[in-house]
User: Which sequence fits this backbone?
């Protein structure tokens, strides 16, 4: 699961994904339950357009009674989108988004300790990571709160991502359920944002390992 990434600033996002400048965003490191930027299909317009939104990284489902949840929603397993209560409504409604990231981080445990690894693209471009968004209405104040989650997929068979995360000693090597984010390439952004559920589902696939520039994060130290 990804719990830290670096977001580009608004100007770079607007240029890379051809989004109109509607929402100020300074970029920087993003952590769960804090604000982050995402791109979605523009609401209340006829022609397909994109808009930049700033919201909480941890999706607040429609049934939540309060903003602070007792369970994590910063990541959503792609295999559970159609059945899990927190995500099935946004997925069915096509509330998909792109999460811009200059880099994301995952823990490597090959040394027996937690060593943070940084993942960039080898071509120098930012990542466009798949996500879902939702707008939640605070029942006490009526405030509309934007939020989003980052999709993940099983990476047990991926030559790079299977090396991440702490091994589960109770599971065999082929059934560890290691997780990886879902990059959406530039050519597929419109299909992800505007396509049908079936079309979007076809984009939930593991990326080529050659796409990654990965290794211990600068200044990384081993953690217990």
Assistant:
């Amino acid at each position: 699961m990804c719990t830290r990434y670096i977001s580009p600033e608004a100007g770079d996002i607007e240029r890379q994904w051809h989004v109109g400048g509607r929402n100020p965003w300074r970029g920087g490191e993003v952590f769960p339950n804090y604000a982050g930027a995402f791109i979605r299909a523009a609401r209340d317009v006829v022609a397909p357009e994109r808009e930049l939104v700033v919201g909480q990284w941890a999706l607040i489902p429609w049934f939540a009674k309060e903003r602070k949840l007792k369970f994590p929603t910063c990541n959503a397993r792609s295999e559970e989108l159609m059945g899990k209560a927190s995500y099935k409504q946004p997925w069915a409604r096509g509330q998909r988004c792109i999460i811009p990231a200059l880099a994301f981080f995952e823990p490597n445990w090959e040394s027996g300790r937690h060593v943070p690894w940084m993942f960039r693209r080898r071509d120098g471009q930012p990542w466009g990571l798949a996500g879902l968004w939702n707008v939640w209405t605070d029942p006490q104040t009526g405030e509309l709160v934007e939020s989003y989650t980052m999709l993940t997929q099983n990476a047990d068979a991926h030559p790079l991502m299977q090396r991440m995360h702490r091994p589960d000693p109770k599971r065999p090597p082929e059934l560890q359920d290691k997780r990886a984010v879902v990059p959406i390439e530039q050519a597929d952004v419109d299909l992800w944002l505007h396509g049908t559920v079936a079309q979007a589902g076809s984009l939930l696939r593991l990326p080529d390992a050659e796409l990654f520039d990965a290794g211990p994060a600068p200044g990384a130290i081993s953690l217990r």
About this structure: Helices lie at 10-17, 85-92, 189-194, 197-201. The domain at 5-216 is CATH 3.90.1680.10 (hypothetical protein yedk fold). The mean pLDDT is 93. The first strand starts at residue 5 and ends at 7.
